[in-house]
């Protein structure tokens, strides 16, 4: 109740009105909110505009956006059409990884709700038993109410989407403030295959442009792969850099249209304002072109060939490898009592995930790479 309790001065959330909001009684609807181990009820107040006479609830987004973080962060839930979800539940969805899905969260909530409901039911039956022991007339008490059913995992994902929408400005500010110095443009069919309903079969490819921080700067559906049909996307991206007064990018990695013997490549022609832009073929697609010229993905030696090809191009940073070896040696000596191991024996104990997590990789250089690839072929 921002006006009734905190005495905050609020304005009308309607776009064409600037009237002041005053209290107009209590909101008639009471929301049921899903919590970690149960449900609770939440009420709010009615606010009325003195100018347009429009009434809104105190928990509407137009009111919450006007509150300072001191007050807005106290709002406990994300509201949907019928039910509501506490922020403590939504927080569990922010770290979704493999094995930590919405279905897993739903199962965990069901277990915690069942345990809390059983405790309350036992307490209720215990009070009934004490009451009957003190009464001279034997009566019968109603059984405990059934446990309310939990919403589905799809509803949890919907709530998570609503929570993201409330923080959309923050996400945009982060991406806008870190444009990145290296861009990568790639196309995929995986997104278009998930389109359903009217949007089905409306696009064949989705082209994404990201930076070295893993942030997607822009995503555009197209009818074909390649530079055709991407002029508007490139113009919009260059305009964003120009309005933000960010220097033009000088390097972009692509999956095709990187070379042209007759002059400027198709990708460079898209970004005409960035005259110093260097277009290079992404290393993964370079490796795929080598593999396509040798064998197919169904060949038994294809995985081994791709691993060896990656070793021909990349090498692990020597400083990171040395620090990882020292840390692994300390771990083996402290936890497992394995002393006196050579560097080769310690390296054999390092898993592939540990190499990927703790060590950076860099290219070997053109001459060494060409020699190693020739030997591999």
From TrEMBL:
The lineage of its organism: Eukaryota, Metazoa, Chordata, Craniata, Vertebrata. Residues 1-165 form the DUF6729 domain. InterPro entries: DUF6729. This is Uncharacterized protein LOC117537082. It holds the Pfam family DUF6729. It comes from the Eukaryota.
């Amino acid at each position: 109740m921002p006006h009734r309790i905190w005495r905050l001065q609020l304005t009308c959330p309607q776009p064409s009105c600037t009237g002041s909001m005053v209290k107009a009684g209590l909101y008639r609807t009471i929301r049921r909110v899903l919590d970690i181990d149960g449900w609770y009820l939440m009420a709010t107040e009615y606010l009325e505009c003195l100018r347009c006479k429009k009434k809104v609830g105190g928990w509407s987004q137009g009111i919450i956006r006007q509150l300072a973080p001191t007050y807005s962060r106290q709002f406990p839930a994300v509201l949907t059409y019928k039910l509501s979800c506490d922020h403590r539940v939504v927080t569990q969805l922010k770290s979704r990884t493999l094995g930590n899905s919405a279905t897993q969260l739903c199962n965990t909530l069901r277990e915690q709700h069942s345990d809390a409901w059983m405790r309350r039911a036992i307490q209720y039956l215990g009070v009934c038993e004490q009451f009957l022991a003190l009464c001279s007339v034997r009566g019968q008490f109603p059984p405990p109410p059934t446990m309310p059913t939990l919403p589905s995992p799809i509803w949890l994902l919907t709530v998570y989407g609503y929570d993201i929408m409330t923080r959309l400005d923050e996400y945009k500010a982060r991406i806008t403030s870190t444009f990145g110095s290296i861009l990568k443009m790639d196309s995929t069919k995986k997104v278009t295959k998930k389109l359903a309903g009217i949007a089905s079969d409306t696009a064949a490819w989705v082209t994404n442009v990201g930076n070295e921080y893993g942030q997607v700067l822009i995503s555009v559906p197209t009818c074909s792969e390649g530079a055709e049909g991407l002029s508007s996307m490139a113009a919009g991206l260059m305009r964003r850099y120009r309005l933000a007064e960010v220097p033009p990018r000088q390097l972009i990695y692509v999956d095709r249209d990187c070379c042209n013997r007759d002059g400027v490549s198709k990708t460079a022609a898209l970004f005409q304002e960035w005259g110093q832009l260097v277009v290079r073929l992404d290393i993964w697609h370079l490796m795929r072109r080598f593999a396509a010229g040798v064998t197919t993905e169904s060949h038994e030696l294809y995985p081994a060939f791709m691993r060896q090809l990656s070793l021909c191009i990349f090498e692990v940073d020597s400083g990171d490898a040395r620090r990882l070896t020292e840390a692994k040696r300390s771990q083996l000596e402290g936890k497992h009592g394995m002393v006196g191991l050579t560097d080769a024996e310690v390296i054999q104990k390092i898993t592939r995930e540990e190499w990927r997590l703790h060590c950076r990789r860099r290219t070997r250089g053109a001459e060494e790479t060409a020699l190693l690839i020739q030997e591999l072929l």
